[in-house]
Write a structure and sequence with these properties.
This protein is an all-beta fold and 116 residues long. The chain is built from no helices and eleven strands. 0% of the residues lie in helices and 56% in strands.
Length: 116
């Protein structure tokens, strides 16, 4: 059974930084992608960033380009999201996501709140 466990969320002032971590267990990821989605109250879940596990190719949604950075540690089966210059509009529950073939896995979510 694959489990994704997020950590690192919290409350931060605008302009501050947070680093989210997503530790995967239950299988070793050598292919597919891992990424982060977020969902703010009253809004749909949106894809924030992703990284290809083998090639390291990254994707960022336009609103976080230049501020967020996704990375992975293959040995630890962990993906990180470094979030800098945070804005109040970044406030949301952030979910870790893993896709391998037709299988999709989700973490339980971690709250990120940015105060103005």
């Amino acid at each position: 059974q694959v489990q994704l466990v997020e950590s690192g969320g919290g409350l931060v002032q605008a302009g501050g930084s947070l680093r989210l971590s997503c530790a995967a267990s239950g299988r070793t990821f050598s292919s597919g992608t891992m990424g982060w989605f977020r969902q703010a109250p009253g809004k749909e879940r949106e894809k924030v960033a992703s990284i290809a596990w083998s090639a390291g190719t990254t994707y960022y949604t336009d609103s976080v380009k230049g501020r967020f950075a996704i990375s992975r540690d293959n040995a630890k089966n962990t993906v990180y999201l470094q979030m800098n210059s945070l804005k109040p509009e970044d406030t949301a529950v952030y979910y870790c996501n893993a896709r391998v073939g037709a299988s999709i896995y989700w973490g339980q979510g971690t709250q990120v709140t940015v105060s103005s």
